[in-house]
Records
---
Amino acid sequence: MSKDEWCASMELRSRMLSEKQRAEYVSKGSGPRGVAVEDRFAASFRREGECWVWQRRVGTSCLPTMTVQSHPVTSARWAWMEAHGVDLTPDDLVGSTCGTGPMCVNPQHHALVTRSEAQRHAQERRLPVTSG
Ligand SMILES: [Zn+2]
């Protein structure tokens, strides 16, 4: 699946969910009896223009985060890896490139950056580091 196809299917999945399903998927969490990661992700954002804006509470990092296979991962990073079909190393960060900032989790709006680049961008914009 290409990045575009992955994004299109995720937008469709998100749009098809009822409000009830959204609430259910978000509350169920992960684990073997939980909801598929893709469904939890789809239930957690809403499309606003071209952006996928995260709707759930964010943790102390102020970044959208999910639990995947018992490990916390920032949602934008997870989506980027899924869309591109690659795994990132801890030194590879994804940074948002659209004006919405860290609450946007659309992989089309993120680019790979190094840790130092991410920190420099954050300083320039006087924002917390928006990469995960
Ligand atoms: Zn965006």
---
Amino acid sequence: MTDHPTIASPEASATPPQPSGDEPAIDSERADAFAAAHPVRPIPAQRPVDTRPICETPSASDFLNPVWKAVVEETRARGNDIHLPISVAYAERLCDAYPTADREVVLVATLLHDTGWAHVDESRILSEGFTGDWRKAQIRYEHEHQGCIVARRVLPGLGYAPEFVERITAIIEGHDTRHVAYSIEDALVRDADRAWRFDRAGIALASSWFGMDPATYADRLAAEIVPELITAAAVEMATADLARSNALLKTGVLR
Ligand SMILES: [Fe+2]
Ligand SMILES: [Fe+2]
């Protein structure tokens, strides 16, 4: 999950935890290579982008059903049963717009990326994960690490090869705490993880996590999350979604 780093909430702890120093180091070589291969940002779409409301194109990837079934427990944590299916639907659209990306990697990584929230101390999720310098909050490193453990637990039994599992964990590890993308697949997962916020369901859920009213949260999305998007397809979808959500939620009046 990603969002603004400095939003305070009523649950804010006085001193947000700092990284322990055990976090995985950033692979600058990979990050630099990806940046050099994609000098134009946001990365132009390779195909037309579907900007209709996301509920019109729910995930059609039935091959993911065994993976979904394997993590039902994990979807019960921190709104994952809303966040993950919507994010996967966005990930499918992003894969349609960037067909050179490995679709299976993007979709499985998106599905699993936040399952680690189910294996961290729930009381610390809002108190540490959504306040202060949240990107550096220890709970965020922990949910990434636990998500990798979930991936290694469920994927081999479903027939996924070790190399595939490693590609998934490389994306999950650092999906919140790393500032740079390593690959187009990594970039699409990151954008799917952000794109869902612009839908009305994302605004409803995420604004409450941050203790903000919808209008203030929508303003933050426009000012701070749109610029973080890596792909032009995500920017296009987010812009269309935000306009619809602002109109529907009457954020121009309810502020
Ligand atoms: Fe996350
Ligand atoms: Fe997420």
